[in-house]
């Protein structure tokens, strides 16, 4: 016990001596230590005050990234709001000049000549064009289409017509049609920084007025208007279409076949409303950019949902638009097409012929479908509505001589000058009806398609 007490006393002295030694022998570190602390505090305070003062001084460095200092109107530090600002700015810039249209013309086996005829009928140097021929068409026909575009002197000089090198299988009423359309939109966005509306046509579509007529009328429209026939999916159609699950074989196989129906059923979605309408649309650049970028993820969510949905081309854009606050008030419930339906049950369009010519004109629609290949009514439209004597429909940009059967469009003039004709008056009347308060109040509702039908009957 005595030895243990002596050992504890000895250890205590040793510890005290070691602490005392550290306190006095290493005292030279105290000054540098406090100096470094003082420097750190000074730098931190300078950074903080410099950060907050930058929002009040005009001669500070400007950064390419999003500023941390937000304005009072800002909703927070989110990249989505910055992207939206960029798109809004771009839309404002485009309003200072005449509009430009971007067309997708699609076809399948045996449609190459029809696609070229439709292309020439809607051609204008201001516009952009993408042609897609289904993978079902043989390679030789797709090559012939590409060579026809490449060998056209006007197309080559203006460089505004492109044939998609990657052909896709497209199933009627399947999601592959949406996938092909989105791919064409992406190509148009990549190739041209300036255009205002996207229009999809098929080889069986044809214009009922010149591009000068359309561009003249669209010059006086807001660049934020989207034209797509739409109505909310309700009642028995909602149960029949929304609960059915289909599979598009073109997503997995190399040969086209009909949609496959599954025995499984799914629930009706509750986080968004479903809309349906025509597959033929005239959409603003800002909206299709939103569908491609999808910065709030709704377009991608809808794309996945409609992958197994019957007639997805008749619902995808409609549902995205009507469930997005930014765009739902821009939806005009008309597809700008004249279409005659089978009666009953009014599910499939019938081929238009001479007997439908007057109805087409009276509809005031700029486009019509569907037409059989080389139907005589197309020649009548060329002669009486388009003033087409050579490759292209009449336009003020064609300033060459037409003597001795020469092509006046072989010499190009100012493409911002339009010479509207009777078609412009018809389209102006239609726009007046579509933009009336009574029609606009039915946007993204169950009543919209009925109002559109009344306009068609009135015309």
Automatic annotation (TrEMBL):
This is Uncharacterized protein. The chain crosses the membrane at residues 29-52. It is a single-pass type II membrane protein. It is found in: Membrane. PANTHER family: CORE-2_I-BRANCHING BETA-1,6-N-ACETYLGLUCOSAMINYLTRANSFERASE FAMILY PROTEIN (PTHR45719:SF9), GLYCOSYLTRANSFERASE (PTHR45719). It holds the Pfam family Branch. It comes from Rhododendron simsii. Keywords: Glycoprotein, Glycosyltransferase, Membrane, Transferase, Transmembrane, Transmembrane helix. One of its GO terms (molecular function) is glucuronosyltransferase activity. GO terms for cellular component: membrane. Coiled coil: none annotated.
């Amino acid at each position: 016990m005595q030895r243990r007490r002596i050992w504890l006393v000895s250890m205590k002295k040793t510890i005290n001596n070691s602490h005392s030694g550290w306190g006095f022998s290493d005292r030279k570190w105290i000054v540098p230590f406090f100096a470094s602390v003082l420097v750190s505090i000074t730098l931190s305070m300078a950074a903080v005050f410099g950060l907050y003062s930058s929002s009040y001084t005009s001669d500070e460095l400007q950064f390419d990234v999003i500023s941390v200092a937000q304005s009072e109107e800002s909703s927070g530090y989110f990249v989505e709001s910055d992207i939206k600002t960029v798109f809004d700015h771009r839309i404002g810039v485009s309003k200072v000049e005449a509009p430009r249209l971007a067309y997708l013309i699609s076809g399948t086996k045996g449609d190459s000549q029809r696609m070229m005829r439709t292309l020439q009928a809607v051609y204008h140097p201001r516009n952009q064009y993408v042609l897609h021929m289904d993978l079902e068409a043989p390679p030789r026909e797709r090559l012939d289409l590409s060579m026809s575009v490449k060998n056209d002197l006007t197309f080559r000089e203006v460089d505004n017509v492109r044939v998609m090198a990657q052909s896709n299988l497209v199933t009627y009423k399947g999601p592959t049609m949406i996938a092909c359309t989105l791919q064409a939109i992406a190509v148009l966005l990549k190739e041209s920084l300036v255009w205002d509306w996207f229009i999809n046509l098929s080889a069986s579509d044809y214009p009922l007025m010149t591009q000068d007529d359309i561009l003249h009328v669209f010059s006086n429209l807001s660049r934020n208007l989207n034209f797509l026939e739409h109505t909310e999916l309700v009642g028995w159609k909602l149960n029949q279409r929304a609960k059915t699950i289909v599979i598009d074989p073109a997503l997995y196989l190399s040969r086209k076949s009909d949609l496959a129906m599954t025995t499984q059923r799914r629930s009706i979605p509750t986080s968004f409303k479903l809309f349906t309408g025509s597959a033929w649309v005239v959409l603003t650049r800002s909206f299709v950019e939103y569908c491609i970028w999808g910065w709030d993820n709704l377009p991608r969510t809808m794309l996945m949902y409609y992958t197994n949905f019957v007639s997805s081309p008749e619902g995808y854009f409609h549902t995205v638009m009507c469930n997005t606050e930014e765009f739902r008030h821009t939806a005009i419930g008309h597809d700008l097409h004249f279409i005659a339906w089978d009666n009953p049950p009014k599910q499939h369009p019938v081929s238009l012929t001479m007997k439908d010519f007057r109805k087409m004109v009276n509809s005031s629609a700029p486009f019509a479908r569907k037409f059989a290949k080389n139907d005589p009514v197309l020649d009548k439209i060329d002669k009486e509505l388009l003033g087409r004597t050579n490759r292209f429909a009449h336009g003020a940009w064609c300033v060459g001589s037409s003597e001795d059967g020469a092509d006046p469009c072989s010499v190009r003039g100012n493409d911002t000058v339009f010479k509207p004709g009777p078609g412009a008056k018809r389209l102006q009347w239609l726009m007046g009806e579509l933009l009336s308060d009574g029609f606009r109040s039915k946007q993204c509702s169950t009543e919209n398609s009925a109002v559109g039908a009344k306009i068609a009957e009135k015309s």
